[in-house]
Amino acid sequence: MNKKRTTLKDLAKELGLAASTISRALDDHTGISQETKEKVLKKAEELGFTRNSIASSFRKSKTLTIGVIVPRIDIHFHSLVISGIEEYAYKSGYNVTIFQSRDSIKRESKITKILQNKMSEGVIICLGTETTSYEHFEKLNRMKIPLVFYDRVPTGFEANKIIINDYESAFKATEHLIEVGCKRIAHIGGSQSTGIFKARFEGYKAALVKHKFPMEKNLVHFTKDLSYEEGALVAKKLLALKSRPDGIFCSNDYTAVSAIQVFQKNMVKIPQEIAIVGFSNYPISKIIEPHLTTVNDRAFEMGMAAARLLIRQIEEEEDIIQTEIITIKTELLIRESSTR
Amino acid sequence: MNKKRTTLKDLAKELGLAASTISRALDDHTGISQETKEKVLKKAEELGFTRNSIASSFRKSKTLTIGVIVPRIDIHFHSLVISGIEEYAYKSGYNVTIFQSRDSIKRESKITKILQNKMSEGVIICLGTETTSYEHFEKLNRMKIPLVFYDRVPTGFEANKIIINDYESAFKATEHLIEVGCKRIAHIGGSQSTGIFKARFEGYKAALVKHKFPMEKNLVHFTKDLSYEEGALVAKKLLALKSRPDGIFCSNDYTAVSAIQVFQKNMVKIPQEIAIVGFSNYPISKIIEPHLTTVNDRAFEMGMAAARLLIRQIEEEEDIIQTEIITIKTELLIRESSTR
DNA sequence: AATTAATATGCAAACGTTTGCATAAAATTT
DNA sequence: AAATTTTATGCAAACGTTTGCATATTAATT
Question: Does this entry carry the keyword Magnesium (chains A, B) (predicted)?
């Protein structure tokens, strides 16, 4: 019975050639005659031969595989990034192995060990919330395995990073509210210990400063994880104020959506009485009524950029250790929630 | 310089033992003394040795890797399934390599070749829309690589399948509308050439029959891909009817949500005047007002089940070729859109 | 004390490819 | 015709593990 798959040697025996010749013929090496190449190709087709890439990887110490570590795959942002990574990697002949850290530093660390053993040629990472030390990544660094971080990137750790300009995006979003005539703009922010949410708050502040608006303490609220529920709580607080805001810049779309709903239930008209801007362009932003003005963070493009950078570093000849920080352009998608 | 990573042989030399002994010690083999095991473990730690799993895979012809082919990763349903797959695989010591077919049969076919060469030990697949012949999968079958299909599964091709009972779920959803008092129930369906959408329509019909409701042709509308936009179009048609329906069973949540919005804009009260039920439990179903009653298709559990079945088949001793079809239980999540 | 059984370790081949170097044959130059 | 270059192919080692079998040592049984 045909127990085993055909190998180079089988092909060689069939054709009366050496295995090395077959290997080179399949690689379209110069130095192998056209005639032989054709014979080999034909026979390979006939016997259904395909290279055992594990053996090849082993011999060449090249796996053509990159690893991706994300907190969770089922978060839309990450699934978009992964989609971008897969797309670029596929076209470059690389495979993508995915891992979820589920925000556990322990699991994240174990995954880096697996990737090391499996000889991943590079790794793309979005840090979990628990991660504040980077020893496990330094280990990969020492093994000369290129790393690219995106979104939640390490601070105080030199590394390749793909980010968006959160500060500027927030600045523009807030300025947009000012431009449509808002006079008192509130902010629903995320945890200030997370870089990106801090930057969004700073951008918001800067826009107020530029336009000489006062910063009103009771218009700024930080949430733990920008959840739908927290957004509703904050919205209720804003609603209860003697003098309500007439615009809100939210650090994500979930809180923006729940705010819209809270106000609507209380007969506050959006955008007439309060204009709202979100962040991230979640699918829901195009569905909620009124459609939500939001910042398109171009997750797919982030993924593509991360893969491109990583693969470039993998294939680079010289290993002058260098890191790159790439900022992806965002765009403000103006929709009805802020159009007057 | 420490150019290369430490190998078993390095360890062996350091300890004055044979490589085989080291290998066995690290495997916690019986037949290696406790003393030696400890020595080896300590030295391994000291030199930062970890097995080269490529070499191991090569020697053992076991890669501990499974492949996943989905049309697109950024569709929420698939990202949830993948999340389930990764979760189960991780706990079983397997890695997950993902590929997007982007609904191209050509790409799907090329991916199967890659998986074959890379010695994936099994593959989980959701078919692309173009796929109607299964030769590329038969090839994997012949190589004894176990396959598990989910959601969009092949017809007329014996294979492992993870599905939900679309017929029964739709039946129950429709019956629920009847129970809350709906007398004339419409249906927004998907392409009837796709098995799952056909089954949902059949389930809807069966519930009407059971309760002796007439099937009204103008209350049933099929869309091309159950998009948000198509849902709105159908809703407008239903709205224009001289005698409107008082309940709608939609084959997914997007159409259900857009129907809700169309009716609300036209001052039709949901659920009082029209009760609505969707399908799939998308995140938006918990956000839209009123919250949408929908069928939880348990995507995460489908992923877990797919991985469990696949890994069982990979590890099974006997290769009596057999296929399994596993049906995942759905549940009807009753929310405000159908509560009177 | 001699035999047997149990325990611990080593030897060497194998997995399928790739690659530097050698060699043989053909083509070109002297 | 001899020497040189070019072209095409083969040889054999190597990559790092694993594993069946052999062997050496110690312990247990007669």
Answer: no
A114: phi then psi, degrees, rounded to nearest 5: -60, -45
Phi/psi for B123 (5° steps) reads: -140, 135
Nearest residue for D18, CA–C1'? B59
- pLDDT greater than 50 at residue A326: yes
Q: What would the pLDDT profile of A286-298 be if each residue is shown by its tens digit?
A: 999 999 999 999 9
What confidence tier does A156 reach under pLDDT thresholds 50, 70, 90? confident
Same structural domain, B195 and B271:
yes
- For residue B46, what pLDDT is reported? 93
User: What tens digit of pLDDT does each residue of B311-322 get?
Assistant: 999 998 666 668
3-state secondary structure A25-72: HHCCCCCCCHHHHHHHHHHHHHHCCCCCHHHHHHHHCCCCEEEEEECC
What is residue B1's predicted lDDT score, i.e. its pLDDT?
Answer: 40
Q: Would you say residue B86 lies in a domain?
A: yes
Specify the pLDDT at position B2: 47
* Per-residue pLDDT band at B251 (split at 50, 70, 90): very high
| Contact residues on chain A for B87, CB-CB shorter than 8 A | 100
Asked if B261 has any chain A CB less than 8 Å from its own CB, the reply is yes
Those of residues 5-64 in B touching chain A at CB distance below 8 A are 5, 50-55, 57-58, 61, 63
Residue A313 resides in a domain: yes
Partners of B51 on chain A (C-beta within 8 Å) are 117
The reply to whether A62 Cβ lies less than 7 angstroms from strand C is no
Task: Return the CATH number at B21.
Answer: 1.10.260
Nucleotide nearest to A18 (CA to C1'): D10
Name residue A154's amino acid: P
Q: Cis bond leading into A271, ω under 30°?
A: yes
Q: Which residue is nearest to nucleotide D9 (CA to C1')?
A: A21
Question: Rounded to whole angstroms, how far apart are CA atoms B81 and B77?
Answer: 6
Q: Does B227 touch chain A (CB under 8 A)?
A: no
> Taking CB atoms and an 8 Å cutoff, what residues of chain A touch B286?
228
| Minimum distance, in Å, between the CA of residue A192 and any CA atom of chain B | 26
- Model confidence over A142-154: pLDDT tens digits? 888 999 999 999 9
The alpha carbon of residue A337 and the mean position of all alpha carbons in its chain are separated, in whole angstroms, by 27
Query: Among partner residues B52, B100, B114, which is closest to A83 by beta-carbon distance?
Result: B100
Same domain assignment for residues B153 and B266: no
Cβ(B314)–Cβ(B121) under 8 Å?
A: yes
B124 lies in which domain range? Answer: 64-164+300-329
Residue ranges of E strands in B204-274? 220-222, 247-250
Burial environment of residue B123 by CB neighbours within 10 A (0 to 12, 13 to 18, 19 or more) = buried
Q: Is A61 left (phi over 0), alpha (psi -120 to 50) or beta?
A: left
Residue written as tokens 């995106």? A150
| Contact map slice: B 134-173 vs A, CB within 8 A | 143
Count of structural domains, chain B: 3
- Report if CB A23 to strand C is under 7 Å: yes
